[in-house]
């Protein structure tokens, strides 16, 4: 965990892994602080990281308000949950073109600005905590910064790398994204990175002093994410189950996973393995069509979005969990929540050899050659054939999450970031 050497972190209070993570929060550490969190791409409390941050700040004594979009079953324009004020706004349908993105970002900035002033004249705030994407929320924060408010940038996604991975080029729009990112860092009193690769970007491309950048990982709440009794129905009568939890999108590499399944079933004759894929996203229907085209409908179950109970049952039943994210500039430097969630329920992992995936999982995972579905399939087969390796890797992963990567272990650094911002 990379934090400033000049910040002394308070030790965590002793708390059981079964207890809510709020039991690990130093009480009154942020008493009297008033915080406005702005997140554009997901509603709260659906956005797990933002909701954990908000609950942590609230438990530390701060007054917390959130501005976010509607969606994912959260349609109320205003509500209070666990003492946290949530203001929501509508957005245009998912953007699929430059004009669509312009409409979405313009609508979001207008709504965020309007609601920020409403909060300012209501419960008030002394700190704006902006969560990207996109890197435009600094425009909402700028007038409040001129009024003496603090600005914390929570760096969730590296947008220039995402653009490069999606379009396989740089060019004008890539440079524009770099400019927005630099302006955001320039305005920030403190930035929060989700891993050390992002921290390096903040210090180099963003030009921030190292003592202003804090690494707060998106660790799972080990009081919530844990093994439950398995459900054999997910095996579809087969001996083994391989599980996947995540977004069904272009960057997530689920198409490569289906190619690996095709190799296992039709080339290696492995009819004893069922795959269960949990999650929704823009590519879900096309992936179902691909599965049918490859003759895998009986071997691959698409659950779509599932409630926590069902998701945890799939993970607890699985013999191996997979992360088929493509190796590209975005995924190589990003920490994927699903990796830590697999580790939290003691599951061995197969993934492609992405830099931050290896940093997170270590010996809890096997690593296939870059974007190679055949090697990915071979790694799954090897792991299914080694009971002792699966148990050993699962134990290592769970112990690593509890010791270093859970949300409970990230709380002191989040609070230290707020103390640093207050001194600017």
From TrEMBL:
Domain of life of the native organism: Bacteria
Claim: Transferase is one of the keywords in the record: yes
Protein keywords: Transferase
InterPro entries: Glyco_trans_4-like_N
Glycosyltransferase subfamily 4-like N-terminal domain mapped to chain residues: 48-222
Single GO term (MF): glycosyltransferase activity
Protein's recorded name: Glycosyltransferase involved in cell wall bisynthesis
């Amino acid at each position: 965990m990379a934090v400033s050497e000049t910040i002394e972190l308070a030790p965590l209070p002793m708390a059981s892994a079964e207890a809510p993570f709020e039991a690990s929060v130093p009480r009154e550490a942020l008493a009297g602080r008033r915080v406005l969190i702005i997140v554009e791409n997901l509603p709260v409390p659906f956005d797990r990281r933002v909701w954990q941050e908000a609950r942590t700040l609230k438990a530390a004594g701060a007054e917390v308000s959130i501005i976010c979009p509607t969606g994912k079953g959260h349609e109320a324009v205003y509500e209070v949950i666990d003492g946290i004020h949530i203001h929501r706004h509508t957005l245009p349908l998912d953007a699929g073109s430059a004009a669509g993105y312009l409409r979405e970002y313009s609508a979001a900035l207008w709504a965020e600005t309007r609601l920020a002033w409403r909060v300012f004249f209501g419960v008030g705030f002394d700190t704006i905590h902006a969560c990207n994407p996109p890197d435009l929320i600094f425009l909402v924060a700028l007038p409040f910064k001129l009024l003496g408010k603090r600005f914390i940038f929570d760096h969730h996604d590296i947008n220039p790398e995402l653009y490069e991975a999606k379009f396989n080029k740089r060019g004008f729009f890539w440079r524009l994204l770099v400019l927005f990112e630099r302006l955001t860092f320039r305005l920030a009193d403190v930035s929060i990175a989700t891993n050390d690769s992002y921290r390096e970007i903040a210090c180099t491309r963003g030009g921030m002093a190292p003592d202003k950048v804090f690494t707060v990982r998106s660790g799972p709440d080990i009081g919530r994410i844990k093994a439950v009794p398995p459900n054999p129905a997910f095996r579809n009568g087969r001996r083994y189950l391989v599980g996947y939890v995540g977004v069904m999108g272009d960057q997530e590499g689920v198409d490569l996973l289906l190619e690996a399944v095709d190799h296992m079933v039709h080339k290696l004759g492995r009819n004893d393995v069922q795959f269960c894929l949990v999650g929704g996203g823009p590519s879900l229907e096309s992936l179902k069509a691909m599965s049918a085209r490859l003759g895998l409908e009986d071997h691959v179950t698409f659950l779509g979005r599932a409630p926590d109970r069902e998701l945890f049952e799939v993970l607890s039943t699985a013999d191996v969990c997979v992360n088929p994210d493509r190796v590209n500039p975005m995924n190589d430097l990003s920490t994927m929540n699903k990796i830590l969630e697999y580790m939290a329920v003691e599951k061995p992992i197969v993934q492609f050899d992405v830099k931050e995936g290896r940093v997170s999982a270590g010996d809890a995972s096997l690593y296939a050659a870059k974007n190679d579905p055949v090697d990915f399939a071979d790694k799954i087969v090897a792991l299914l054939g080694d009971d002792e390796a699966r148990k050993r890797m699962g134990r290592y992963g769970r112990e690593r999450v509890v010791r270093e990567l859970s949300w409970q272990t990230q709380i002191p650094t989040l609070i230290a970031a707020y103390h640093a911002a207050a001194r600017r």
